[in-house]
Design a protein that fits this description.
six-stranded mixed beta sheet; five-stranded mixed beta sheet
Length: about 500
């Protein structure tokens, strides 16, 4: 039976998964890499770290496979989108990669909205925000003009990594859409948008279907990674598109809620349905789309909480091979619904849907002498769930008639968090057995290589639902009251957050 590999570069690390042709996982490995914050509001990564993580993680995954990768038929690389790798005419990386979480381009975003906002929305189907490549590039043009002039090629994270494996230079329609430089209806780079920032369209890569085989693993990459030389490699797609695919959301009306570094509420649609508060992308399944609504700091909120409130516990648990997140969940489960009035807003990186305000900041509100660590842990889980409900309500207005809701992401490993999300939003949720981007990437590689006849066939064969959670309706009613307060607090503190933003010179 042929085996397939998916390689994903999320915001926090590299995940590699090998599956067989019925979706059974044969090997899996993960490696974290650093994100650098050289100034408040900045977020950057070094592409060299990705390649180091790639080599280490692929080797670790292959060691788990019975045949150490000799049965591989193909692979695909996926990654977070919006992140541009800039190289010069000699192929050298010009500067660190500005990540989608970066907020430095607020002024450039405002200028683009004022000058070209409606035109950009008409072509790119979204308004500018600091998340997108377009304002990030404008920031570089204005603040690092010499670096901007040196740009000979632009790649995105997965394309840079895939290029290391194969030597190709291209992207796919999904990642191209994530740049805000692309006309997805015309399936072409928008020269009109490029002209807004004096960017030659020639520095942008050729665009393929996500399933297209665009190269093979080179001999040099094979020697470094342990992959078979000549292994076919598909173009790949964004991590979000791969997650939706890997979760089995391949038909209009299906919804995916993701508890990952960022949180997403995505719904599959038959036609593109641009909305000012959502993102619109082509699906990996041809001729359908998905609408994405996002909160910036989802599982990253829990990770931040772990790293700052559970330092000693984290070190002790890691020494003993245990997971500190499970301990945190146990504490949170001991606190009541609503955490005795303690409320958390997860705006560690500003916020996208529904506010699109980079000056919002995270906060704990309602602290009293009665509150202990367990209440803070539960408040973080509930606060993120409230933020996802903000997104869900917008999604309902865009596309009514949701068929089913699938819950995915690293945070979805927490049964407590899954139940809280179901209770807050008030919907049953399906939990797929395998739900990460690397699994979706492996399926995509199978479609590209012909192991599966289509994306839908691949999902039907390989995607398995392991659990279904029903909401606790008493908890849902209580959360409804807390959610009203949650939203009131945002309105009440918005002006104060703006002042704090200005005072510390973000």
């Amino acid at each position: 039976m042929p085996e397939l590999m998916g390689i994903d570069f999320g915001t926090g690390g590299c995940k590699v998964t090998v599956i067989d042709a019925v979706g059974t996982v044969k090997g899996s490995a993960y490696t974290e890499y650093a994100t650098h914050y050289p100034h408040p509001g900045w977020s950057e990564q070094d592409p060299v770290d990705w390649i180091k993580a790639l080599i280490k993680t692929v080797k670790a995954c292959l060691e788990q496979c019975d045949d150490t990768g000799r049965g591989l038929a193909g692979l695909a690389v996926t990654a977070s989108t919006h992140n541009a790798v800039l190289t010069d005419s000699d192929g050298r990386i010009i500067r660190p990669c500005i990540m989608w979480t970066d907020q430095r381009s607020i002024d450039q975003t405002a200028w683009l909205k004022k000058q070209f906002g409606e035109q950009i929305f008409a072509i790119g189907m979204q308004y500018p925000s600091p998340t997108w490549t377009l304002p990030q590039l404008l920031w570089i043009k204005e603040n690092e003009p010499e670096a901007y002039k040196r740009i000979a090629r632009i790649s995105f994270v997965k394309d840079h990594v895939r290029g290391f494996l194969t030597g190709d230079w291209c992207t796919d329609h999904v990642d191209a859409q994530g740049s805000l430089l692309y006309d997805a209806r015309a399936r072409a780079w928008s020269r009109d948008i490029c002209a807004m920032i004096d960017l030659p369209a020639t520095v942008l890569p050729p665009v393929h279907k996500s399933k297209d085989v665009v190269g093979t693993v080179s001999q040099q990459a094979a020697e470094l990674t342990g992959l078979p030389a000549g292994l076919p490699v598909a173009a790949g797609c964004s991590d979000t598109a791969a997650e939706d695919f890997g979760a089995g959301a391949v038909e209009p009306g299906q919804m995916v809620i993701k508890l990952a570094t960022a949180g997403n509420v995505n719904i599959v649609t038959r036609e593109a349905q641009p909305h000012p508060k959502s993102f619109t992308y082509p699906h990996v399944v041809e001729n359908i789309w998905y609408t994405a609504l996002a909160t910036n700091a989802c599982a990253s909120s829990y990770r931040w909480f772990r790293d700052n409130f559970f330092v000693e516990e984290k070190n002790d648990f890691e020494k003993n091979g245990r997971n500190v997140y499970r301990f945190m969940d146990e504490l949170a489960s001991q606190a009541p619904v609503g955490a005795l009035g303690l409320m958390y807003h997860p705006y560690l990186l500003g916020e996208r849907c529904p506010y699109y305000n980079s000056k919002l900041r995270a906060s704990f509100i309602g602290m009293g002498m009665v509150h202990k660590k367990k209440h803070f842990a539960r408040a973080v889980l509930e606060g993120v769930a409230f933020s996802l409900k903000d997104c869900y309500q917008i999604a309902q207005g865009i596309t009514p008639g949701i068929k089913d809701v699938r819950l995915i992401g690293g945070g979805a490993k927490s049964r407590l968090w899954c139940q809280i999300v179901s209770d807050v939003i008030g919907v049953p949720v399906l939990k797929p057995k395998n739900d990460d981007s690397s699994f979706g990437g492996a399926l995509l590689a199978g479609v590209g290589k012909g192991v599966f006849g289509s994306e839908i066939e691949a999902a039907k064969i390989c995607v398995k639902v392991e659990n279904e959670l029903q909401p606790n309706w008493d908890n849902h009613a209580r959360y409804g009251k807390f959610f009203e307060v949650y939203r009131d607090i945002v309105k009440d503190l918005e002006a104060s957050y703006a002042k704090l933003y200005e005072y510390v010179a973000y």
